[in-house]
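I have been asked to look over a protein record a colleague put together. What it holds is a sequence and that sequence's fold in token form. Please read both lines and tell me whether the tokens look consistent with the sequence. I do not need a full report, just your reasoning and any doubts. This is what I was given:
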Amino acid sequence: MPRSGGAEPGRRAEVLRVLKAAPGPLPITDIADRLGAHPNTVRFHLDRLLENGQVERAVPAHRTAGRPPQLFRAVRGMDPAGPRHYRMLAEVLADTLGAEPDARGRAVEAGRAWGRRYGGAPDPTGRTHVQRLVALLDDLGFAPGQAGQAGQGGGPPRIELRNCPFLELAADRPQIVCPLHLGLMQGAMDAWGAAETVDRLDPFVTADVCVAHLTGGDA
């Protein structure tokens, strides 16, 4: 359903453009005049730009009688709402890591460092280490199931991962991304002083599931 013209992001970009081009702060009426827009429309977009940190209020340089007008100016610096290309950065880093002599080992170690740093916060809830690992994986977007036995015949517990937050990268470079995820889980368990660890990660056991196998301790 198309939105009304007053709420379109394109008009918001025009408000920001006017403020960036202005030699000093502008009141709402001036911005509206330059755009041929209603002041209420400009006010709506200024509210969103303020929330995004792209615009800030300014104090009038000279005090006048009566209520001073609200002045706005663009925040100088890179646009915090501008386009991002993190996947490109991830591809560059993965390709660089993949060129190393022991690419898999380096990926696992990088993942362990990530896991030790990300998972090292204290946990006052009394959860087991395996439960903490499941919660960490859920927080990171892996959509894990609860740890269960490996098949009807029993065996060490395993955690099914039903989503990969780096799916496209993992499909193209599984030799880097999957060891990175394995290291992440191992590093978190190391940070918690767990007797258990993740022994291996089987990627794409089915089209929609990867499986992490635990070993040691209560596992």
In short: The radius of gyration is 26 Å. The chain has a mean pLDDT of 87. DSSP finds eight helices and seven strands in the chain. The chain has two domains: 5-74, 86-215.
